[in-house]
Design brief:
about 230 residues; alpha/beta; seven-stranded mixed beta sheet; 9 strands; about 25% strand
Length: about 230
């Protein structure tokens, strides 16, 4: 139970973190981020850029991973998700939307040698024109625009710029999975399989995984693991 508590705290600690910079610097940072977003039309790429600019400092402490020891599954109707043992962090994802730009898409992602930046980071979120009014009434998608999202019409899309990948939609779903599972507080050594999943499915699987203590262990990284996650 101590390990579960640790993971939950680590996964949510960023919410309560206090920053020491003054109001002026905070506002300037926000302006810089917004200007970069508007100018370069990026999604999570911008975070990679900022991290690269800031640099990475090696610390004299072992890096820990959540190593999956046995398969854990969660299903909700035709939506399925599981995580199982693997020597790497990898994701098999498939989606199915009745739209001419999407239909059935599948992608297999392995985190290694900068693959996240090349294959996943720039994949934008997407939505449908029929959902826009409903989302706005619910005070959702407030920051969404044609600059940072794909807006689909029944037969095409509103965006003037083309798709960044032919299968950009399933790649963005993988980006969602990476982001949600980061809330566990440490990188995973395991393979995630997702079929028609979404944020609620991700959360349900993570909850079930943490409760199944025999399915995982916290382990220190080898040099191979470290190089893959850099």
């Amino acid at each position: 139970m101590r390990q579960i508590a640790f993971l939950r705290i680590a996964g949510t600690s960023f919410v309560n973190e206090k920053f020491s910079s003054d109001r002026k610097n905070n506002e300037q940072s926000k302006n810089n981020i917004q200007n970069n977003r508007n100018r370069r039309n990026r999604s999570s790429e911008i975070f990679i850029e900022f991290i690269e600019k800031a640099g990475i400092k090696k610390q004299d402490a072992p890096r820990r991973f959540l190593k999956i020891k046995k398969k854990v599954e969660f299903e909700q109707g035709d939506r399925k998700m599981s995580v199982e043992p693997s020597a790497k962090f990898e994701i098999d994802c498939s989606i199915d939307f009745p739209h001419p730009f999407i239909n059935q898409q599948k992608y297999h992602f392995v985190l290694e040698n900068g693959s996240f930046g090349r294959e996943i980071a720039s994949a934008r979120t997407f939505g449908f024109t029929a959902e826009i009014e409903m989302l706005r009434k619910a005070n959702l998608a407030q920051g969404g625009s044609l600059e940072n999202a794909i807006v689909l019409t029944p037969e095409g899309m509103l965006n003037a710029n083309p798709l960044r990948f032919q299968d950009e939609f399933v790649r963005h779903k993988i980006l969602d999975i990476v982001g949600d599972f980061a809330l566990l507080g440490m990188p995973i050594l395991g393979k995630i399989k997702a079929e028609k999943s979404g944020h609620s499915i991700h959360a349900s699987l993570m909850s079930k995984l943490l409760k199944t203590e025999s399915a995982w262990e916290i382990t220190e990284a080898s040099k191979t693991h470290l190089s893959n996650f850099e």
